Amino acid sequence: MIDWQSVLSDAATAAEQVLGRQWPAVADSATTQIAALVENAKFIEDNRSGMTDLEYRATKINQQRALEGVLTGFSAISIVVAEQVAAAVWDVVESALKTVPELAAFI
Amino acid sequence: MEAMACCPEGGIVKIGCQAGLRSILMVVTALALARCAPGPAYDEQIDKSLSDVQHTVDLEILNLISLNRQVQQLSASAKRLSAAPEAQSKKALVKVEGDLSKAQDAMSYASNVDFYNGVDSDLTSVQMRLDGTPDLSTPKIDGSFAQLKAILVDFPAQGETPTSMQAVHAQQDRLSDGFLKSTRAQANALFGTLERYELTLKNGKSTPK
Asked: A77 touching B, CB under 8 A?
C-alpha cells in the first residue's frame, strides 16, 4: 500500500533542495505542481487496468518527464527572481550613490 | 589605511584614506555588471500564445474523452438493438451504427493529425520567441519545453517505443480515458510552470538594456 502523503512529502522536500530555501514563493508554486503530479502518479496506478501496456509504460515515462520539466522550469524561475532581486538592489544602490558627488561620474 | 599610486608626472604619491571609496566602487561595478545582463523581457504575445496552446491541448484531450464515452454508449446501443427482433429496432440500429462509425473516425489518429502538427508548431514558435532574449534561465526553460514536446508530440527514434500522446495515438489509432487524463495532468503541470515563468517576468517587469 503506497503512502501517497509520504510520497508528496518526500517530493516536496526534494524540490526544496533543488530550488533552494531562498525563494519561498517559488517553492510554494512548485509544490502545487508537484502535488498535482503525485496525485497523477496515484491515478496512473489506480487506472492501470484501463490502459494498454503501451499506454501504461508511456505515461510512466511521461510522468518522469513532467516532474523533470517542472523542476527545471522552477529552477529557471528562481534565476529570474534572483536577477530581479539583483536589479532591485542595484536600483536602490544607484539612487543612493547618485547623491555622492565623487561617485556621480561613475554612474 | 593609505594607498599608493603612480603620479602622471612621475614618482609615487600617497593617495590617502580611500579604501572605503574603493570598496564602494568595487560593489558598484559588480552590481552594474549584473544589471547589464539584459535577460528575458515579459512578452504579452508569448503569454497569450502559451495560454492558447494550453487551451487547445486541454480541449482536444477533453474531446477525445467525450468521443470515448460516445463510442461506448453507441456500442452498447448497437448491441441492444441488434438483439431486438422488431423492424423499428433495425432502422434505429442503422442510425446508431452510422453515428458509431463517425465517432470512431473522429477519434482516429488520421482525424487528429492537424491538432498535433498545430501544437508542435505553436510550441516551437513560442520557444523561439522566448529564446530571442536569452539569459541564464533560458537553457532551463528550454528544458521544460523539450519535456512538454516529448509528452505531447515527439516521435521516437527508429526502433524505440513510442511514448508521446501523438506517437501512442499513431500506433493504436485510439487512446484510453486513463492515458488521456494522465497526459492532461502532465501537460497542465508543465504549462502551469511555463505560465508561472512568464508571470514572474511580468511581475518583475524585466526589460532588456
From this structure: yes
Residue in A40, A84, A86 closest to B182 by CB: A40
SS3 (DSSP) at B162 = coil
Report the complex ipTM. Answer: 0.80
Output the CA angle B36-B38-B43, nearest 5 degrees: 155
| pLDDT tens digits along B159-171 | 999 999 999 999 9
Cell 484531450 sits on residue: B61
**Chain A partners within 8 Å of B185 (Cβ):** 36-37, 39-40, 43, 66
**Which among B161, B177, B190 has CB closest to A69?**
B190
The Cα of A95 is separated from the nearest Cα of chain B by a number of Å equal to 12
- The answer to whether the Cβ–Cβ distance between B176 and A55 falls below 8 Å is yes
Question: pLDDT higher for A104 or B139?
Answer: B139
| Cell numbers linked to A97 | 550613490
Under an 8 A CB cutoff, do B200 and A77 touch? yes
**pTM, 2 dp:** 0.80
> What would the 3-class secondary structure string for B24-42 be?
HHHHHHHHHHHHHCCCCCC
Contact B112, B67 (CB under 8 A): no
Higher pLDDT pick, B77 / B16: B77
Coil, strand or helix at B167: helix
Please give the radius of gyration of chain A, using alpha carbons only, rounded to the nearest integer: 22
* A23, A81 contact by CB (below 8 A): yes
